[in-house]
Amino acid sequence: MNKTYLIIAAALGALSVILGAFGAHGLKGRMEPDALDIFETAVKYQFYHVFALLAVAIISQFIPGNLLTWSGRCFIAGVILFSGSLYLLSYFKMIGNTQMNWLGAITPIGGLCFIAGWLLLVIAAIKN
To answer: What whole-number distance in Å separates Cα of residue 42 and Cα of residue 20?
Structure first.
C-alpha cells in the first residue's frame, strides 16, 4: 500500500467535506449562482478523485511499478490544477475581479491530468 497516497487522499477527502459544507452554508447568498456552481464543481471533482487516489494507494500493494505511482501523481496534479483553478476562479468572481478569468484556462490542464491518471490506472491493470 502506498502510505503517502493514502494520507494525501484522506487529507483531500477531509478538505472536500470542509469546503463542501463551507460552500453550502457559508457561501450561499454571498456568491452569485454561477460562481457557486463553479465552486461546487471544484468540490465534486476533488472528492471524486479522492476515491481514485485511495484506489491507487490500495492497489499499489498488488500491482508493482511506476504506472500507479504516476497515476497517483496525475490525480494529485489534477486536483490542484482543476479544482484549485476553479476555487480561485469562483473567489475572484465573488469579489468582482474579472481580470482573473484567465484562470479558467488552467482547468482543462487539470482535466487532462485526471484523464491521464485514469488511463495509467487502466494500463497498469492490463499489464498486470
So the answer is: 9
